Amino acid sequence: MPVPSSFDYAVVRVVPRVERGEFINAGVIVFCLEHRFLEARVQVDEARLKALWPEVDLELVRKHLEAIPRICAGDVTAGPIARLSQRERFHWLVSPRSTIIQVSPVHSGLCEEPGMTVEKLSRRLLDVG
Q1: Cβ distance 121 to 28 under 8 Å?
Q2: pLDDT tens-digit map of 8-53
Q3: pTM as predicted
Q4: Which of 2, 7, 97, 120 could link 32 by a cystine bridge, Cβ 3.0 to 4.6 Å?
Q5: Strands 24-32 and 107-111
Q6: C-beta of residue 5 within 8 angstroms of C-beta of residue 112
Q7: How far apart are CA 5 and CA 2, in angstroms?
Q8: Are 65 and 40 spatial neighbours (Cβ–Cβ below 8 Å)?
């Protein structure tokens, strides 16, 4: 019988106009130290984003969001952050910031299979229909 492992996760949010505090969920980052697992799923409902801010630069948002899974995977083309340890990459990705791409507070849970957990969380938390 598999033993549950602890994991941490955060929701990636697009906050098109920081001063208004409105956001849409655009991804989830899951880190499980015991399984040496760090993965992110990202996708954004561009129509909803445009409704919040018609002038948003969708290409720029896509570029920043697409970097997150690459950093999680340690893809060296994602820059110097991708060369850090998994734990350091996770902490860097979930650190508070006041830019258009932000993350929720970090939440914890228990899982048996982190790959299934990231899938389940992305289905439940992302705003794409």
Answers
A1: yes
A2: 999 999 998 888 889 999 999 999 999 999 999 999 899 999 999 9
A3: 0.93
A4: 7
A5: unpaired
A6: yes
A7: 9
A8: no
